[in-house]
Amino acid sequence: MSADADAIYIVDDDPAVRDALSVLFNMEGYVVETFSDGDTFIDSASRAVPACVMLDVHMPGRSGIEILKALNAENYPAPIFIISGQGDIPMAVEAIRNGAFDFVEKPFNAETVLERVKEGIAAMNERQPIEKNVSFPGAELLTRRELEVVKEITEGASNKEAGRTLGISPRTVEVHRARIMELGARNAADLVRIVLGHPTAG
Predict the structure, then answer these.
(1) What's the count of helices (H) and strands (E) in the chain, helices before strands?
(2) With b meaning 16 or more CB within 10 Å and e meaning fewer, what string describes 30-48?
(3) Which among 50-64, 127-141, 170-184 has the top mean pLDDT?
(4) Rounded alpha-carbon distances, angstroms, from residue 131 to 51, 92, 167
(5) Cis geometry, peptide bond prior to residue 129 (ω within 30 degrees of 0)
(6) Threshold 0.85, pTM exceeds
(7) Contact at 8 Å (CB) between 4 and 50?
(8) 96 and 103 in contact (C-beta within 8 Å)?
(9) Tag placement on the chain: N or C end, fewer CB within 10 Å?
């Protein structure tokens, strides 16, 4: 699979969204490829890896969630941002749990989208290998990104600080934290005890 470090793939069935994002990223010097359906995109994304993917959660044919699963998004080498409307938060949460890097809400603020995408690309490029010897109850159930969030939380980072380090929004950190807390932690201090092997008494 070849890598195209200057390319941004935009997958959206709305021509107005594709055009607006294309202009935005072209002005920043990126090469933009647009797709109006998931199948064409999956075909391209399995042959070449762009710098970033912008993927609409509502698509004709395959939904954004199905596309994430088909791509094995959790292990895809480029950040995949889900584009969602304001009423799509549950779907955005599901997308993140299926490997989406982060989500951006419509209507867009051009400056915010650019900043988030640049931070996401930088964070992916600086990703450290995750220690395979992480061993605490439930660790094997967590995704790579969730383990990265665990590391930030146990080092005392707030959602905002963890988001800055990982190149994602604080809301996305919150989604990961909620999933991590399903391990049985009632709060961040509990989680630290679980991870460090000091279960709470009682």
Answers:
(1) 9, 7
(2) bebbbbbebeebbebbeee
(3) 50-64
(4) 25, 28, 20
(5) no
(6) no
(7) yes
(8) yes
(9) C
